[in-house]
Amino acid sequence: MQLGVVGLGRMGGNIARRLARAGHSCVVWDRSTSAVGELAGEGMAGAADLADLVSKLAAPRAVWVMLPAGAPTEETVNALAGLMSPGDIIIDGGNTFYKDDIRRAETLEPQGIHYVDVGTSGGVWGLERGYCMMIGGTKEAVDHLDPILAALAPGKGNIPLTPGREGRDPRAEQGYIHAGPAGAGHFVKMIHNGIEYGLMQAYAEGFEILKNKDSTALPANERYTLNMPDIAEVWRRGSVVSSWLLDLTSIALAKDEQLSAFPGEVADSGEGRWTVMAAVEEAVSAEVLTAALYTRFRSRQDHTFGEKMLSAMRFQFGGHTEFKMDK
Amino acid sequence: MQLGVVGLGRMGGNIARRLARAGHSCVVWDRSTSAVGELAGEGMAGAADLADLVSKLAAPRAVWVMLPAGAPTEETVNALAGLMSPGDIIIDGGNTFYKDDIRRAETLEPQGIHYVDVGTSGGVWGLERGYCMMIGGTKEAVDHLDPILAALAPGKGNIPLTPGREGRDPRAEQGYIHAGPAGAGHFVKMIHNGIEYGLMQAYAEGFEILKNKDSTALPANERYTLNMPDIAEVWRRGSVVSSWLLDLTSIALAKDEQLSAFPGEVADSGEGRWTVMAAVEEAVSAEVLTAALYTRFRSRQDHTFGEKMLSAMRFQFGGHTEFKMDK
Amino acid sequence: MQLGVVGLGRMGGNIARRLARAGHSCVVWDRSTSAVGELAGEGMAGAADLADLVSKLAAPRAVWVMLPAGAPTEETVNALAGLMSPGDIIIDGGNTFYKDDIRRAETLEPQGIHYVDVGTSGGVWGLERGYCMMIGGTKEAVDHLDPILAALAPGKGNIPLTPGREGRDPRAEQGYIHAGPAGAGHFVKMIHNGIEYGLMQAYAEGFEILKNKDSTALPANERYTLNMPDIAEVWRRGSVVSSWLLDLTSIALAKDEQLSAFPGEVADSGEGRWTVMAAVEEAVSAEVLTAALYTRFRSRQDHTFGEKMLSAMRFQFGGHTEFKMDK
Amino acid sequence: MQLGVVGLGRMGGNIARRLARAGHSCVVWDRSTSAVGELAGEGMAGAADLADLVSKLAAPRAVWVMLPAGAPTEETVNALAGLMSPGDIIIDGGNTFYKDDIRRAETLEPQGIHYVDVGTSGGVWGLERGYCMMIGGTKEAVDHLDPILAALAPGKGNIPLTPGREGRDPRAEQGYIHAGPAGAGHFVKMIHNGIEYGLMQAYAEGFEILKNKDSTALPANERYTLNMPDIAEVWRRGSVVSSWLLDLTSIALAKDEQLSAFPGEVADSGEGRWTVMAAVEEAVSAEVLTAALYTRFRSRQDHTFGEKMLSAMRFQFGGHTEFKMDK
């Protein structure tokens, strides 16, 4: 089927490519004409602007917006809404905050335009591996998009089937689900990312304890110099902690066991923060997901005011001076 | 090759079985004669007692002890040491604290007996999937045991090879590593379990936020009733959080999406606690691994004294009575 | 000077009383006529409704609203705004979210009405001890209210002066500060409460470790049965952890060392949650304040879905059944 | 009464001074002859060595050891044990791990020598404020030492009495308690320090959120530039978070509101670590005390291996490069 794709960065471009490979027909646009040209060169229809893109699609139209969350997505959704007709579908495949989805769907509903939010996981591996998708929107719209979604999804591949799923939604086994009404897709994807933070931090802490086991602060007969790449690799096979993140860790450690290319300042995206806020709103004690986020905050600091305050108190009550402190 | 196996519980029995399938010859003993009889019925040599077991092995002997950590293992290791000869090998495949390994190896070294500790992951799935093993001990002993270890390990299977591992220890790709001197095997396994706690808790928190998204404490248009089994299943395919633990979660949720068979009191084993203590000894900020352990502690409590104290303070300064509090 | 007081609950009533004792003149109103009657019986002027209250005040009027945050305060502020004149002052002394203050001040500014937010600490002890106040608003309005604020504040009392404060705002030593523009008062009070959560939790955890030191899970010669009331009391004198919260703890423990009147389900108010959200917005790693909040969340649960999930995973990978688990 | 004091650093010297002021007779020794000379110059009896010190005391002797925990204390206790007689008392006033106290008391018991452990809080303020003391040992020994302990303790001072303590141990109101058998004093002091970490961290986090409220990452109308010294000062008066630590914070901030003299690398002593280990042994969920310790660990690091690993994973799955990341 036909799909408009707006935003041809790494994610958007590869989504169009994966659809084209599956025989779907994409009309693409990006504010970068070279990005449009690149995909046009691969045989897709390039658009000159949003209006041109809409005009090249047959009703009911579906346009996938794959742009940074916030203003870029918001403005594009609004512009598309002005160009589209009742029965058309706007898909936000980015990392939008789910409350914005709820608001947009409520705004577009009187116009008869469907708003579908797709939380998309897969990153740079998606073109080959497929995209795991969590989708929010009306049943009507999501069903209409099914050919597109099925083509983007990873499919069953060689992943073992889960016993006992007879009678449950078969789309989950293909790698996509209709999670609920507008916003539900991004909400589930947001929690996915929150979990991702927690998983990553669990590995990071474990490997740090392994790494520091050669510390001279320990008794000499309790020190080990452990081989990080081999440990990551061995855990991929038959251990309880095997995972795709561990596969990636093993790749990174095989390349450089000191990870010296990485300065250690870790960015965080909105999803981790929103996950904590959702936990607070629901009164869920999300200790691990929150600690994982906070660790990233701290990684980007030199010394915090709070730490200076600790030293100041220690100086006041105990005369401790941290100046000559040996680490 | 020949191996004595002491302790024929779920783990020990299956280890003997997996070795027998690979053509190795096991002499087995357990204080339960029926356990010995069961394996004897499968064609293995049963022993009447430890001395009998040792006598049925040709030097240099190797005996795998697969018993609960602490007194059962300690007493068996000591008894074996009294029965064995220089050049023999005692293997502790249980969940021993690594400092006990260090002590035992130092004690046995003057007798010429090798002590090898094997941290073994794989649980009830090991017989079929193979056991992921982290091994501590002398190079001489570990090399001698290689045929046994290779047979127990999962092997490469259909798990993709990690690029860039050329020149690194190929045993890691088979699912076992020689981690270092005595204790190193159990130390690495201990951290493996610490990470396992963190990963499990990350999933648990994420799913709890998903589950509680239908709470009536939230605004009506921000509530979703989400499908736990489908979410677990979809994340297995192409998402960043795919893992073996997620596979297991999907199985459990497919069977009962309320998980009502589980009361929610979660046990912890020594490894989780030891991991925290190792972090403290090394001054590693292991927020997530520790929070995961503490969550289990809390899950086994009704109300804590600390919580009563919070209420008592609130009553004192604000006149807040928690009695009629609505949850 | 003259002040209108709306909302005559424990806080509002005592604020009026403390002002009256200091010679100020209060016009009071509450939707409960008996509450109005009670203060009228103490010599204050009761109003029949908001309009009556406003009409009994001379311009420039000042009305202190002391109502629950959210709708009750919002509606009252709006109603007062419709009754008041340029130059008048509306004071919100409740626990309003500071972003609501910012919005209200922006709304009232074109009308020439000043909006002042006062974060008020002191609880049931305020009538005698005075109220610690953190104030947001224009300099003009806050200065105008100074006689009122000075009367409500605790004053220097017998608390030792802080050396080195020469040249700094003397109001801080009296127990009130002008923190900044609208919202700044409630923001500082919000963080005050966040810290309060953290302090309380630190004591709670420490006392719980003391309390559980008689656990039979510990080696017999490492068990102590410790005296909670005496420990709380001794720390009040010369120790680093002495505080007002500890004073209150000592009172509670002296009365009942088991704290058996308290079920252990601990409520949380908005401030604790907003503090975590502020930390997330600022990318501050507020581990302790967040853990303190989460502990309260958990205290109000029986068993969580997350904990059931942990058990379910343990059952899947290890065959562990938590049913017969000994705590 | 007569007391030997060994170790004349800041704590030991001031303990001797406070006792001398109260009319007690101290025999003092330190490996630094100048330290001995200084106190001798103040009228105390200096000893030439441990044997000389013991010989200058009348039986039953009591010697207060005030040395760094570990080897210095251990060696001195052992040396004194060799010089003393049945009925004598060795007091360890340092920061010894309580399990060492238990062991020492068990070792000395057959010799008839009493071992008393005194957890001492008060730091540099103790000479004037008195020392808050938590004491472990036999009733006989602790009762014998009462005149010494009463003189060192702060006494009731002007701290309000706790209502309802009638019939409880009056020593607690004087600032010292007999906590239990050997080790109990240091155990209670250890938890005191654990709580201290938690309290300090709660203030540190709260002030950091206040401090960062002027961040340009926030919307312009939600920024405040808050006055740290005034906020610390105002909370000392009538607020729920008033404490001695807050008094000290106010002093530090009054002197330099940027705390620029403090680099922000915060040391930790054994007690914080032992508190976490005690919590783990007792299965107490000590989230806040542990997070406070971990924050200090992290404060002394540049970038951790764990953080580099997070970046490495992000690079692998998303192509995120943290190199050009803007903080």
UniProtKB/TrEMBL annotation, chains A, B, C, D:
GO terms for molecular function: NADP binding; phosphogluconate dehydrogenase (decarboxylating) activity. Residues 185-327 form the 6-phosphogluconate dehydrogenase C-terminal domain. It comes from the Bacteria. GO terms for biological process: D-gluconate metabolic process; pentose-phosphate shunt. Pfam families: 6PGD, NAD_binding_2. The keyword Glycoprotein does not apply. Keywords: Gluconate utilization, Oxidoreductase. InterPro entries: 6-PGluconate_DH-like_C_sf, 6DGDH_YqeC, 6PGD_dom2, 6PGDH_C, 6PGDH_NADP-bd, NAD(P)-bd_dom_sf, Pgluconate_DH. Pathway: Carbohydrate degradation; pentose phosphate pathway. Belongs to the 6-phosphogluconate dehydrogenase family. This is 6-phosphogluconate dehydrogenase. It comes from Ancylobacter defluvii.
